[in-house]
Specification:
- The structure is a single chain.
- Helix content is 19%, strand content 27%.
- The chain is an alpha+beta fold.
- Strands 5, 6, 7, 8, 11, 12, 13, 14 and 15 form a nine-stranded mixed β-sheet that branches.
Length: 238
């Protein structure tokens, strides 16, 4: 296993990020700086990034149905419940791919594969995310073009890809960006309050009938759909 893949399997980050760490002289093997990308660490080697020892983990990719009221982080200074409180403690260390704000619900992917995380979050891949949006009053379809053209948030144009009315106060929206609290803030800009926000799809992966607060490993077919070049099945028994 080449060094960048070894580091990615240890949860350090994507292989591209690991390449940058190697090139910058941040990686040592048995106490010596290693900038040789072709090196393959052997069993028993001490591999460090900075002062931290790293070891490959069993790959794990899961889908979680996040309930409202849970924070998308591993720990919270305000002692709120986190999404990791919903997972058993024996799982390999994993991290969430993107976030949902505290009151939002729905599909989250957690993984320890940095390349999958990059594939799902980097803007160049334009991965679609679909949400059910419940508004505080009936939707005025004449406002749709403004959200499709985009409004400015944090100095950049935030736009929706598609808006599909379902009921008077219920919409399905699709976006490809990841600006903080983007959907809530965009609707606020045109005079609406979002009362409920549920992510139901990332790329080709749908939330389906997974119960709230439950999780499961992604299947090999789901991984192929999310990242065809690198898909491998998660372990069946956890």
């Amino acid at each position: 296993m080449r060094l960048n893949r070894y580091l990615a399997a240890a949860g350090v980050g994507s292989r591209r990020h690991c390449d940058e760490l190697i090139a910058a002289g941040r990686v040592t093997i048995n106490g010596r700086v290693c900038t040789d990308f072709s090196v393959q660490p052997q069993p028993g080697d001490h591999v460090k990034v900075g002062s931290k020892m790293v070891r490959p983990q069993q790959r794990l990719d899961i889908i979680l149905h996040k309930p409202a009221g849970f924070v998308s982080t591993r720990s919270d200074a305000n002692a709120r419940d986190t999404i990791y409180d919903l997972l058993p403690p024996h799982l390999p260390r994993i991290f969430n791919v993107g976030r949902l704000d505290t009151q939002s619900e729905g599909l989250l992917i957690l993984t320890n594969d940095g390349d999958l995380a990059l594939r799902l979050t980097h803007p160049r891949y334009k991965v679609e995310k679909e949400y059910e949006v419940t508004l505080d009053r009936p939707w005025d379809h004449e406002l749709a073009p403004k959200l499709l053209r985009g409004v400015f948030l944090d100095g950049q144009r935030a736009r929706l890809e598609r808006i599909v009315p379902v009921k008077p106060t219920l919409l399905r929206v699709i976006l490809r960006q990841g600006i903080n609290r983007q959907i809530r803030r965009m609707f606020y800009e045109i005079g609406y309050e979002v009362q409920r926000l549920v992510r139901v799809r990332i790329g080709k992966l749908r939330l389906g009938d997974l119960p709230r607060a439950h999780w499961r490993p992604l299947t090999a077919a789901e991984l192929r759909a999310l990242d065809p070049a690198r898909a491998k099945p998660s372990p069946k028994k956890l």
